[in-house]
Amino acid sequence: MLANIRHERFAQAIARGRAASTAYIEAGYAARGRSAEVASSRLLRNVEVAARLEELAAKLETASIADAEEIQRFFTSVMRGQLPDGTVLTEDHVTKDGVTVEVRVAFKDRVKAGELLGRARGLFSSTGADAEGELLAIAQALANPVGGRAPPN
Hints:
mainly alpha, 58% helix, 2 strands
């Protein structure tokens, strides 16, 4: 936290996505004409404010990305059938026009996202052909949870 409370408010507003001039005014500074734009630009170059903005950005990034434990919990819940196939989640997104729309996320897309996150985090330790075999085994186990094999024809 910055010692200057207005600097802290400014950094917090910037971290929330406010424009610099808007953040400057929200932080409690008085501005006339284009002075908010000029002063906010100068404040962005302040070493302490810039460091605080980097700190806030790092916290935001860390909180928004699934960690290895969360990915493993997800795969475990899928494997145990706690999230049966066909489960659909909805998320609200705001379009450029400011309209909120509901986006349906299919279960298979969540599984693929979890797989990609797991790969990116190195949860699948095998490489090359071994990795393909391991991923194929995981996919088969998810598709056919009884012993990981397809039922007899």
